[in-house]
Amino acid sequence: MQSTFGLMRSPQAILFGPGQRHAVGRVARALGRRALVCTDQRLSTDPQFAALRQSLLDAGAEVLVYDGTQPELPMDGVLECVALARPFAPELVLGIGGGSCMDMAKLVSLLLAHPGTTLDDCYGEFKVPGPVLPVIAMPTTAGTGSEVTPVAVVADQRRDLKVGVSSPHLIPHTAICDPELTLSCPPRLTAWAGADALTHAIEAFTATRREPTPELGLERVFVGKNLLSDACALAAISALSRHLPRAVQDGSDLAARAGVMFGALQAGLAFGTAGTAAAHAIQYPVGAITHTAHAVGVAVLMPYVMAFNRPACTASFAQIAAAMGVHAASEAAAADAAIEAVAGLLQRIGIPSTLAELGLDPQRAAWVAEQSMLAARLVTNNPRPLDEAAMARIVQAALGGERQALSPP
């Protein structure tokens, strides 16, 4: 019998839909008077951002803006923002922008709430010492799901790797998801962000299913596949497969933009409790070597990881096919069709099809496989058991575009 265990962690409030950004002033003022806003330089000069800032001021808030957020969020930037904000003593933090801006807000709220704590102290799961300053997350791209997740990722230059801080304390207090804020997102970034969300949803839906003990949700931030995350993941896959190609083709299509943002939100809710798996584990060392965006790396890897996982995921893949509107004569055929449908969608929106296209040197393939195994949380969340040899098979296949080499005999 299918397990009826479910776990859902989410913000206290999610405001979704066109125009919801205009609520930010009243939402923020209910949480405090001094508001720190974390964004990037491009957004800080946008008229939409000026209107959001004015909304905060009109509600009686004092506002400090930090607009130095960089892509892939280097640790030095987090520390710079904390140093700037500490004399201001903010009572809440807003992250307005892409995933890096929202992760910046989460990590800054952590360090401001717990003086003396370092990010090194918090790497891993359940290491955040307690509640953080309330965060309002406002995405301007639709992909990372950071507006609803318990994780923030930072690039630790000393380790030359991206590292995650995972704790329910990091879930934003309020997520304000207004698809009108994504209308100016260029086609390539729209494609990358949406592909990231699709990967989140697929890996959450196919994550390993664990024994539902009463301690499971207290001992793990990411508990694996469960009843509630499955519902969100399927909703995400359905919305993204229908709306993402349209949003990439015509960025002014507000209905498509809303569908993609809804998919990214649902994917965030799904992987925020279920977790991700092999595609994310492999991307970390690939990204470190190639200096390519996280979203592109996981999307390139997803069809290859699906091909490897196929023997363990027939029923789940068939459900993915149905969510994408693909039907077949049998469950096995539907499972195969799901892999093709995902690969085809990613190709249509311009995602590269091999790691070689990302610039990965074949001579570094063995190192990538070795380093991927160090992401134990992701490795053990994969539905099919992984060892270094299996990782090497996936990496080699993804290097040369040889997905068929991962298919069962």
TrEMBL record:
Pfam families: ADH_Fe_C, Fe-ADH. SUPFAM superfamilies: Dehydroquinate synthase-like. Residues 190-398 form the Fe-containing alcohol dehydrogenase-like C-terminal domain. GO terms for molecular function: alcohol dehydrogenase (NAD+) activity; metal ion binding. It comes from the Bacteria. Its cofactor is Fe cation. Keywords: Oxidoreductase. InterPro entries: ADH_Fe/GldA, ADH_Fe_C, Alcohol_dehydrogenase_Fe. Residues 11-179 form the Alcohol dehydrogenase iron-type/glycerol dehydrogenase GldA domain. Belongs to the iron-containing alcohol dehydrogenase family. This is Iron-containing alcohol dehydrogenase.
